[in-house]
Amino acid sequence: MEDRSAEIENEPAGGKINIGKILRVFLSKWYWIVACIAIMLAGAYVYLKFAKEIYATTAIIRMAETKTEFTELVNLGDQSASDENETEMFILKSQSLLESAVNNLDYPVTYYTKGRVKDVNIYPQKPFPIEIVSADSLLRGVPDFEVTRKDGASFTLAYEKGGDEVKRNYKFGQMITFDQLKFIIRSGLNMGSHTYRIHFNTVPELVNEVRRGYSITPGGKTKIMSLRLSGPNPVLIADILNTIIEEYIKNDAGRKKQAATQTIDFIDSQLLQFSQQVNKSQDELSNYKKNNDIVNLSAKGNQLLAEVNSNEQAKNQLEIEQLYIQQLETEMKQNRNAITLNLGLGGQTESLLSTLIANLNNLIKDRNVKLEQFDEQSSLIQVIDNQINEIKRAAMNNIRLLKDRNNKTIRFLDNENAKLKQNLRAYPTDEQNLFNLQSNFDIKQKIYTYLNEKKLESEISRAATVANASVVENAKPNFALVSPISTSIYQNAIIFGLMLGLGLIFLARALNPYLHDPAEVQIASTVPILGMIKKNNEVLNEDEKQSLNLLSSKSAFAEAIRSVRTNLSFMQADQASKVICITSEVAGEGKSFVSVNLSNSLCLMDKKVVLIAADLRRSRLHKTFDMSADHKGLSEYLSNQAPLESIINKTVIENLTFISSGKIPPNPSELLHRDKMKELLVILRQQYDYIIIDTAPVGLISDSIPLIQMSDINIFVIRSGVSKISAVKLPARIDREYRMNKSSIIMNAFEPNAFRASFFSADSTEGNYNSYYYADYNYNSPYYDDEPVKKSFWRKIFGK
Q: For the chain, how far is it from start to end, CA to CA, in angstroms?
């Protein structure tokens, strides 16, 4: 006997990916892929028919530089262009700005033309004017209305209410009342025969619609920002975006003008007071001159007056500034919001406090905007609060220093004037009184003039104020579709269809656990394939009597059996008589069919063959030879109820003897384990060239194990499309457990199938099956059922 112990310990034959087989697998189901692509293309076509068309437009604005040299002085951190852009982006997206823009757009009604598939927004066309008499701000419960002209004087209004369609006729110019909405359709001269759908807009609804398609892209470290808006109507979104920009620029300019307005209001309040004082002083001076017959001061008096007036004017200016600073201090202590007062009176006040206040207002504005997204306790808001507190401390410190400086200057000027007025004692009393009256009038007159000049400057500044933002490029209607893009949709449909088709092929293969390809057997097992028998669509009868005649022709099946017979001659070639055990993992894999036909083929070579039906539980071989189930057989012999001569039966095939299984015994496994079975094989070896034993399925019961151990050659039958991978691994496992080296495999009912082929080729064969012969037949052999096995729906799809 040839030693195969080393071969038993080897791993199964390796496999490598065969690109050609993979391609054949997918090409075999090309119509699946084509069908999936066709379905996806049809879905894409339907989607494009019903999908809402979306357009987009862009506008570009530029922000002016607002950073000052005082930023680092008050420790504001990195106020980069990107930070300022972020603040402005929040403002551009703020609810108040969008509401203001929507209100200014004057877009109370949306007109649609009715289509068979979808309605189209026809803005800016207005086929008929609508006057809204009164309406609830949210228009709760107001549906869309369909308007169709009947004649020149009337129209039909249709809408849904409570799931039912309501149609009513109205005259043009007639009041239409629906819950909280009252409106009038004035004329239908431009309606034609079309049916229109009208939708009454609300500000919150439009703002939400704008938000869905509104985005802003900052220019990084530059002061440029790109605004983008998408929607179903290219003209409408361009108008909305331009209106948003106009409102933003107007609000920005308004914020800047507010400071000048506050200065003008303050000056006006002071002018009113000084105007009265100037008039009073002028009257007192005129009356004194008239009553005392004095015209003017002397030359020395005028010189002294000029010096005193200069000091008094400076003092009064400081007092006005002091008053303004005091108001600013009060507002800064009490008001947490933006500081509305503006220091535009000149001097150190404007250069320092104005810068502080501007930065403070910017931070407060930034804080208010970011509160829409962040909580007050968030780290970002806390950082801004710390910066606000630092600026406020710096501003309050600067206010204190300014107040101290002004007070010192005022005291100094008072002392200087006191010294100058000491010289008046040398003048006559009349001239001293005239000096005081003239000085009082001149000071108030100059202060009054000074305030008028400052007011004029503030008015000019307010009139010349421009916004920080400027338009680089206005939004224009863009009639190129953004979504859906038909070419892209169809391309994606083809890709998804291809992926779906490939996925279905993978899924169908993954859900099929059965063997179909000899390469799978060679890769999974070390046991060699003795031969393959091709499937045929002819159905054998239940008793398989036709199998006795299949070898009479020169069919591919007969050649396959002869090939198996030839291969058997090379196995255990040194033995004159061979015991061949034929089994399978489960019933229905064709072991009995192979046993009959292999026996028949060996007889054609003038070999004496005995076929033993060793399945003592459920054998059907006796039907093949027209024998009764009660005929004495192997079970009677092993239980000493019949001699050997009585169980040996000649058959219609020359040189073929048959031993049936006999009656079903209560202890089939014990009978087969008896020494008498060994004695029987010894006797038969002396009389026959081949002893073919058809056993029970070894994967279900252990009856076959003693016969497998006694035999010279074990043939395991696996059936394509029926056997699983466990059937392939079973022969090697049995050889390993019982330390045998005599197993081989026959692949039954093999049918070349590109779809079921393995993606791998065994290294030993490279996927070449030309050395095998095939047979055409179909086979059913249930083990425990009397009726043939019927395939389930899923078995038909994923099985074979």
A: 39
Strand bridging mode 145-149 / 195-200: antiparallel
pTM for this model (two decimals): 0.63
Distance CA 682, CA 342 (A): 124
DSSP β-ladder status, 713-719 and 578-584:
parallel
Please give the C-alpha separations between residue 448 and each of 275, 278, 342, in angstroms, as whole numbers.
7, 8, 20
Rounded-to-integer distance, Cα 131 and Cα 706, Å: 102
Listed in sequence order, the residues at least 6 apart from 324 whose beta carbon sits closer than 8 Å to its beta carbon are: 266, 341, 343, 345, 349
Query: Closest by alpha carbon to 635, among 618, 605, 614?
Result: 614
- How many CB atoms sit inside 10 A of residue 312's CB? 20
Distance between CA atoms of 658 and 172, rounded to whole angstroms?
106
In angstroms, the CA 115 to CA 138 distance is 28
Positive or negative torsion for Cα 747, 749, 754, 759? negative
Q: Tell me the residue length of the chain.
A: 800
> In terms of DSSP H, where are the helices of 157-202?
none
198 phi, psi to nearest 5 deg? -115, 140
Token duo for residue 400? 């204190």
Q: Is 127 left (phi over 0), alpha (psi -120 to 50) or beta?
A: alpha
Residues of the chain with pLDDT under 70: 1-15, 64-85, 87, 220-221, 255-260, 262, 285, 289, 293-305, 334-355, 358, 369, 372-373, 420-432, 434-435, 461-467, 536-555, 572-573, 762-800
Collapsing DSSP to helix, strand or coil, 130 comes out as: strand
Taking the mean position of all CA atoms in its chain, how far away is CA 430?
Answer: 96
Both structure tokens of 635: 């079970």
Torsional class of 119: left (φ above 0), alpha (ψ -120 to 50), beta (otherwise): beta
How far apart (Å, rounded) are the C-alpha atoms in residues 359 and 387? 10
CA dist 318 to 163, 308, 429, Å? 77, 15, 31
Q: Is 717 helix (H, G, I), strand (E, B) or coil?
A: strand
- A 10 A CB-CB count for 770 gives 5
Is the peptide bond between 782 and the residue preceding it cis, with omega within 30 degrees of 0? Answer: no
User: Cα–Cα distance between 242 and 720 in angstroms, integer?
Assistant: 73
Cβ(50)–Cβ(117) below 8 Å: yes
Rounded to whole angstroms, the Cα distance separating 534 from 749 reads 5
- The three-state secondary structure class of 472 is strand
- From the list 734, 707, 713, 709, the residue with the least C-alpha distance to 575 is 713
Strand ranges (E), 476-614: 481-483, 529-534, 578-584, 609-613
Report whether 383 contacts 267 (CB < 8 A).
no
- C-alpha 536/C-alpha 253 separation (Å) is 92
Contact in structure between 176 and 134 (CB atoms under 8 Å) = no
Tell me the two tokens of residue 633: 């057989």
Kindly give the pairing relationship between strand 649-650 and strand 690-694: unpaired
How far is Cα 420 from Cα 303, in angstroms, rounded to an integer?
11
The pLDDT assigned to 503 comes to 93
Closest CA to 756 of 2, 22, 7: 22
